[in-house]
Amino acid sequence: MSGYERILAGLTALCAVLAIALPLGVRGDTIIASWTETPALVFPVLVLVLLGLFVLKLPPLASGVLALAGGAIVILELGSFDRGSWGYWFLLATVWLLAWLFAERLSTRLARAPVRNRLAGTLIPVMFGAAILLVWEAVTRGGGVPNVILPAPSNVWNVLTGSVPTLAVDFVQTFKAVLAGYALGCGVGFAVAIAIDRSPFLKRGLLPLGNFVSALPLIGIAPIMVMWFGYDWPSKAAVVVIMTFFPMLVNTIAGLTASGAMERDMMRTYASGYWQTLFKLRLPAAAPFIFNALKINSTLALIGAIVAEFFGTPIVGMGFRISTEIGKLNVQMVWAEIAVAALAGSVFYWVVALIERAVTFWHPSVRGGRA
């Protein structure tokens, strides 16, 4: 075990000891919950944590299982008192440090493995995301945070599951603009990059112009697009086109210069023309750059469409819903829309990444970064 992991293990053990020694919760002005009044799993789980950490032989899987068990105990304890006391917060810290230790040990093991294990690698972000949600839930409920300030994930989930028809209509309205603007912006950016590459005059004239367009503030151009294209989704698509055009333009131009001089000389040796060299050498070499722009634009497009809906839209759309519900202090609905947007953006990014893996299977980053 490395020195860094020993420090994490020591901190986890200290928090576990304090969680056992201190009371867990408070109801009103009276301390009513200690470890003797908790579910039967609390004490043995914490003892196992201490034993495993003191002997320093707790494997990654055991760390993850104990972190999940501790998280379940934290959730069970939330209904036992009005707010958490010192023992409760040290119990939460123990769970967080265990999850951290699990991710650290698993990452170290994966780095030393001769073959990549995708399933084991997926466990790390899953554990990290679950730990963030657990801490969010525990802090908001155990600390008595008002819903107007920050609702608990469970409250957001209840609103999300109870408002599926509304969220679905908003999602469809917004994503029409996202997909249309994404396709147009990336397509035009790619075409202009090819044209600029072919003409030095266009490179000197259009590249600075594209830089100027990318610097335009979104809140300034969104109302103008609404005035030009109306209140429906085409005006939001126009905003997305402006946001996605420049990243594609710059990345494609950079990618077209990625092929080496030796490869280009070899193509000329075989009497290849411009277009043959472009399609058989330069575009394949530029593929990682192009997909990098596509992944960046997958999130920019969603952000642009949602922000544009703040400045005029029909009575549907994710941006419209966020702006109206925050005015009514319905913060749970706002967070539900944010959750849907985050999920949609993640899926969009994941689809583009899958296509990238299929197209650029030859690239070292796809093959695992090993020669």
Automatic annotation (TrEMBL):
Q: Keyword Metal-binding on this protein?
A: no
Q: How does it sit in the membrane?
A: Multi-pass membrane protein
Which residue spans traverse the membrane? 38-56, 61-80, 86-103, 115-136, 177-196, 208-231, 237-261, 300-322, 334-355
Report keywords, A-Z: Cell membrane, Membrane, Transmembrane, Transmembrane helix, Transport
Q: Please report the stretch or stretches of sequence annotated as the ABC transmembrane type-1 domain.
A: 171-356
Q: Where in the cell is it found?
A: Cell membrane
Transferase as a keyword of this entry, yes or no, is no
Q: Which domain of life is it from?
A: Bacteria
User: What Gene3D superfamilies does the record point to?
Assistant: MetI-like
InterPro entries associated with the record: MetI-like, MetI-like_sf
Cellular component, GO, one term? plasma membrane
**Could you mention a single GO BP entry for this protein?**
transmembrane transport
- Homology family: Belongs to the binding-protein-dependent transport system permease family.
PANTHER family referenced in this protein's UniProt entry, alphabetically:
ABC TRANSPORTER PERMEASE PROTEIN, ALKANE SULFONATE ABC TRANSPORTER-RELATED, MEMBRANE SUBUNIT
According to UniProt, the name of this protein is ABC transporter permease
Q: Which organism is it from?
A: Devosia nanyangense
